[in-house]
Amino acid sequence: MPEYKAPLRDMRFLIDNVFDFHGHYATLGATDASPDMVNAILEEGARFCENVLAPLNRSGDEEGCHFDNGVVTTPKGFKQAFAQYVEGGWHGVAADRAYGGQGLPHSLGLVLSEMIGSSNTSWGMYPGLTHGAMSAIHAHGTEEQKTTYLSKLTVGEWTGTMCLTEAHCGTDLGLIKTRAVPQADGSYAVTGSKIFISAGEHDMSANIIHLVLAKLPDAPAGTKGISLFIVPKFHADSGERNAVHCGSIEHKMGIKASATCVLNFDGAKGFLIGEANKGLNCMFTMMNHARLGTGMQGLCNGEASFQGAIRYANDRLQMRSLTGAKAPEKAADPIIVHADVRRMLLTMKAFNEGNRALTYFTAQLLDTAHLGSDADQRQDAEDLLAFLTPICKAFMTETGLEVTNHGMQVFGGHGYILEWGMEQLARDARIAPIYEGTNGIQALDLLGRKVLGSQGKLLRGFTKIVHKFCAANAEHGQLKAYVEQLNQLNQQWGELTLKVGTAAMKNPDEVGAAATDYLMYSGYIILAYLWLRMAIAAQAHGDAEFARAKLATCEFYFKRLLPRTATHRAAVEAGSECLMSLPADAFNL
């Protein structure tokens, strides 16, 4: 398995030089998030991830989870690592102080989550799902529910899940069959089965709090009749076992150390959270948290893959450079001298560092949305989050999968076998474009709901930022050409959106046909903006070698990756006819 080292230099560059986290925290009044505190989280978090979690990544994949008559046991070392994590206070870094958290900004929690996910994606699923459950209870629960559940979830004594999917329905939640029948004591008897429940059963915490979508007996049809319920594994008051049991765990391609469960609710006692028939609104609080976390998994697996690939490329001897021997004292040159290997490594580097910048940019918006004192600023941040969330989830996981595939390819045949660990990263990364709403669904959400549904308002919120940036840097000596390239794409973005919207008024299929290419097109433009911000900040950086690497990678991104927007634009403009003209029965064998 590649040895993971937290990329602290790059993380600090974004925190200190690009996004000025310290000034950002001062503006929000987050005085506890001092430079010393940020540094401590980086240093100690890196130490925990490198020394405790990373060594369990390969062994966890090889062992997997164990299922025995409803009891799930995690791989060796996972439970002990979770105990260390809880003891160190990591679980509540960004949680509300009122329930035992440290109350630090969400951006610091995401910085920590990146290191956790890069060192051990499967292990990170257990606390990650819990944070999503905490956010939903905090936003929609009663004071009694918050006191009862958040105090235990925050410190890591209990963990949480989100239970949406059923065997006959995934994205179309209006088809769920799980039912919740009111009881005389104000609780509900929840009956039904849920599948693909990450961390649904395990041995790492004393209790598991399930947030379950179900329908009341008199619920309206479709998604308007969905309610959300808190269903604990063990009752909070008596400690007795609730009627929820794990029927099986899935045998998967990747993230094998993360227990993916079938959960059967047999009249389990549950408690309504939020309003009746408004459960989907409550669940979106948790889903959006999970989607940002899932998007970051693309970065996490990509970072681990890049670290393995760059070490191998420097060590592996194969052929001579086309321009003459670079290591004449050796039998052959290291493969890093070859242009095609450089192409793969620079693609990995450009996507990883660009996606990290996107993560941190989005993290600051989360801080403002939660901690900002100005209502207009909070609303602007929430609007930008609404626009960026599907892009973060889909673009980062698609490019993260590309990065892990390049990592395997750098190793050649050695990348395909178990010993080097590169194939595990590709397997682990493959789920990210699928769960928490497939990337096709994210694309429909972006184009259909967020962009066209807001009459372009949410898109304009971001393009205005890019426009101001381009205007301010139009005469930048070294980067002028790239600023103009970004400015032209930013204008084209609005024109393309108008074209799709006009076509969709005549034929709604145009939205579905354009959505995925539109999302990827958008993602490439967003990363171009962030790469220019990094390039400008790098020029003022004290480390000349570090600055040179940033500028060279920015140049590679603009010359070799950003041109992909032309292909995505052409696909969007091709319309739906070539997709929908073939009759469905013509696909039959």
Automatic annotation (TrEMBL):
<dbReference type="GO" id="GO:0050660">
    <property type="term" value="F:flavin adenine dinucleotide binding"/>
</dbReference>
<dbReference type="Pfam" id="PF02771">
    <property type="entry name" value="Acyl-CoA_dh_N"/>
</dbReference>
<keyword id="KW-0560">Oxidoreductase</keyword>
<dbReference type="InterPro" id="IPR006091">
    <property type="entry name" value="Acyl-CoA_Oxase/DH_mid-dom"/>
</dbReference>
<dbReference type="InterPro" id="IPR009075">
    <property type="entry name" value="AcylCo_DH/oxidase_C"/>
</dbReference>
<protein>
    <recommendedName>
        <fullName>3-methylmercaptopropionyl-CoA dehydrogenase</fullName>
        <ecNumber>1.3.99.41</ecNumber>
    </recommendedName>
</protein>
<keyword id="KW-0274">FAD</keyword>
<dbReference type="GO" id="GO:0016627">
    <property type="term" value="F:oxidoreductase activity, acting on the CH-CH group of donors"/>
</dbReference>
<dbReference type="Pfam" id="PF02770">
    <property type="entry name" value="Acyl-CoA_dh_M"/>
</dbReference>
<dbReference type="InterPro" id="IPR009100">
    <property type="entry name" value="AcylCoA_DH/oxidase_NM_dom_sf"/>
</dbReference>
<dbReference type="InterPro" id="IPR025878">
    <property type="entry name" value="Acyl-CoA_dh-like_C_dom"/>
</dbReference>
<feature type="domain" description="Acyl-CoA dehydrogenase/oxidase N-terminal">
    <location>
        <begin position="40"/>
        <end position="157"/>
    </location>
</feature>
<dbReference type="InterPro" id="IPR037069">
    <property type="entry name" value="AcylCoA_DH/ox_N_sf"/>
</dbReference>
<dbReference type="InterPro" id="IPR052166">
    <property type="entry name" value="Diverse_Acyl-CoA_DH"/>
</dbReference>
<dbReference type="Pfam" id="PF00441">
    <property type="entry name" value="Acyl-CoA_dh_1"/>
</dbReference>
<dbReference type="InterPro" id="IPR046373">
    <property type="entry name" value="Acyl-CoA_Oxase/DH_mid-dom_sf"/>
</dbReference>
<feature type="domain" description="Acyl-CoA oxidase/dehydrogenase middle">
    <location>
        <begin position="162"/>
        <end position="266"/>
    </location>
</feature>
<dbReference type="Pfam" id="PF12806">
    <property type="entry name" value="Acyl-CoA_dh_C"/>
</dbReference>
<keyword id="KW-0285">Flavoprotein</keyword>
<feature type="domain" description="Acyl-CoA dehydrogenase/oxidase C-terminal">
    <location>
        <begin position="277"/>
        <end position="445"/>
    </location>
</feature>
<comment type="similarity">
    <text>Belongs to the acyl-CoA dehydrogenase family.</text>
</comment>
<dbReference type="InterPro" id="IPR013786">
    <property type="entry name" value="AcylCoA_DH/ox_N"/>
</dbReference>
<comment type="function">
    <text>Involved in the assimilation of dimethylsulphoniopropionate (DMSP), an important compound in the fixation of carbon in marine phytoplankton, by mediating the conversion of 3-(methylthio)propanoyl-CoA (MMPA-CoA) to 3-(methylthio)acryloyl-CoA (MTA-CoA).</text>
</comment>
<dbReference type="InterPro" id="IPR036250">
    <property type="entry name" value="AcylCo_DH-like_C"/>
</dbReference>
<feature type="domain" description="Acetyl-CoA dehydrogenase-like C-terminal">
    <location>
        <begin position="462"/>
        <end position="583"/>
    </location>
</feature>
